């Protein structure tokens, strides 16, 4: 028991991801799956695996944060848009032809299993301990994850991405868990989820149908949800606490 308390104490030193919640009773007006509003202390952390939830140490959490930073630094460029004017083209361009084009996604870099802290959200109601002593509480959490991108994609954009990467934008990957946590007196606790996703970097090219030349291209990042063998969405679950 002493070792467990020491481990939890070390986790409390990590300034991490999300919002307060409730323990003794959960708030009926609470909105789940939202960005953090207040900073809390991490008391428990788990990686979702095929074999269930695996508890993470302070060092392992920091390693996941470093992994995301490394992958962010590997991005080719910041977002930008530019036109690539066709040249050296002797074909006759008609008014109709110039308006006929399609989209193609060209992947240049792929990074698997990247923690996406930018998509971290609270996935439980607040759980309160209104007593004067620490008390065990059960925190039920659930969320779903779909594909996303670094900017809003049109239907044609999504079609081009799906053609290159496979899969579907309509597929939803879900996560659900029930966690027991000891909540300190006059504190609230809640669960947050950081999805671990595959990241694809590349360009969405707008291509003229009549000759295949590129009209415009836009730097694009695609984040695809990962589904584990047990059907759960890949990610990191943390339990946080804060005074209320």
UniProtKB/TrEMBL annotation:
Signal peptide residues are 1-25
Its domain of life reads Bacteria
For this UniProt record, the keywords arranged alphabetically read as follows: Signal
Q: What is this protein called?
A: Toxin ETX/toxin MTX2
């Amino acid at each position: 028991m002493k070792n467990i308390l020491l481990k939890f104490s070390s986790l409390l030193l990590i300034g991490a991801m999300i919002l307060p919640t409730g323990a003794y009773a959960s708030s009926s007006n609470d909105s789940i799956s939202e960005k953090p509003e207040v900073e809390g202390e991490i008391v428990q952390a788990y990686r979702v695996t095929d074999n269930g939830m695996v508890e993470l140490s302070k060092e392992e959490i920091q390693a996941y944060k470093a992994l995301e930073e490394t992958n962010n630094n590997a991005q080719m460029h910041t977002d930008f848009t530019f036109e690539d004017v066709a040249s050296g083209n002797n074909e006759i361009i008609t008014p109709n032809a110039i308006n006929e084009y399609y989209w193609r996604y060209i992947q240049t870099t792929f990074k698997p299993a990247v923690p996406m802290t930018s998509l971290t959200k609270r996935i439980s109601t607040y759980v309160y301990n209104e007593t004067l002593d620490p008390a065990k509480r059960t925190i039920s959490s659930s969320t779903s994850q779909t594909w996303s991108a670094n900017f809003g994609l049109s239907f044609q954009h999504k079609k081009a991405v799906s053609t290159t990467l496979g899969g579907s934008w309509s597929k939803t990957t879900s996560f659900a868990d029930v966690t027991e946590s000891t909540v300190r007196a006059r504190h609230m606790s809640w669960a947050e989820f950081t999805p671990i996703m595959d990241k694809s970097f590349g360009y969405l090219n707008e291509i003229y149908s009549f000759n295949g030349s590129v009209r415009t291209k836009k730097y694009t990042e695609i984040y695809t949800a990962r589904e584990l063998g047990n059907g759960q969405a890949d990610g990191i679950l943390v339990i946080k606490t804060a005074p209320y």
